[in-house]
Design brief:
mainly alpha
């Protein structure tokens, strides 16, 4: 009976520390993201650095994004076609597939798969620079590490994720049309006709808008965790793992609020 009262204050104290740390890190990420965006408009413009990061993040993540989109299109088309064929409305399967890909699966799956790779890579790279005191050397030379390191990576993420999401949408629809034709004999003309009749510009742009926000989150989280690595090489590994977890939770959480926003438009 006696140990229970002593444990409650300790649990409350730990919970308070966790909340304070969460608020501190969230504020730090927002501040870093704001600084990175503001410094993007200051001369000199780091266009070459942004182009390099786009190549590193985008081209090397293209295969992951396309493979994810292919299997997403195959799976959701099989699922919906199976159930819709029971009710004799197989010809409308394209309507469901296009809305699911454009509004949800395209941007979310791209952010989760590619974001894990990009975010962890950013954290590992900047964390290694922090451990080896290269960030301090940049400050000592009078350069701004936010503008030199954070801004190009955040801008690259803001650019590549909408592009990858657009490609994922197209590839997912092609894969869906193929599996619907191969498994259920639905013609390509009927599949794409239902897509054209159903999909609107808002359906497409809502997914692109989500991917734009997801890209900003992934870039800022990766840079922030890399800048705040502690504990040497072991800390780099820990920060990389935390980055993947934070990105996954942030993408799912922001997707809920963005979905409510776009559905209200």
């Amino acid at each position: 009976m006696t140990p229970e009262p002593a444990l409650k204050p300790r649990r409350i104290f730990r919970g308070k520390i966790f909340i304070e740390q969460l608020i501190r890190e969230l504020g730090g990420m927002v501040l870093m993201g704001t600084r990175a965006c503001l410094r993007a408009f200051r001369r000199p413009f780091a266009l070459r650095d942004v182009a390099y990061q786009v190549e590193v993040f985008g081209m090397k993540s293209l295969s992951i994004a396309l493979l994810t989109a292919i299997f997403a299109g195959l799976v959701i088309t099989l699922q919906f076609a199976f159930f819709m064929s029971r009710f004799g409305v197989l010809h409308t399967v394209g309507k469901v597939v296009v809305l699911t890909l454009f509004r949800e699966l395209g941007p979310v799956l791209t952010a989760l798969t590619v974001g894990a790779r990009v975010g962890s890579g950013i954290t590992a790279e900047l964390g290694s620079m922090k451990v080896t005191e290269q960030l301090d050397a940049i400050r000592a030379l009078g350069a701004d590490p936010i503008k030199k390191l954070v801004t190009p990576r955040v801008l690259a993420c803001l650019f590549i994720f909408p592009v990858l999401t657009t490609l994922a949408d197209v590839v997912g629809l092609v894969a869906g049309a193929w599996i619907a034709h191969a498994e259920y004999g639905l013609s390509y003309t009927e599949f794409y006709r239902s897509i054209v009749v159903t999909a609107t510009i808002l359906d497409f742009t809502s997914g692109i808008g989500k991917s734009f926000v997801f890209g900003g989150i992934i870039g800022v989280v990766g840079c922030y965790k890399g800048f705040h690595v502690q504990g040497g090489t072991e800390g780099v590994g820990k920060a990389t793992t935390e980055t993947v977890a934070i990105i996954a939770v942030s993408v799912c959480l922001s997707d809920f609020f963005l979905t409510k926003l776009f559905l209200s438009l």
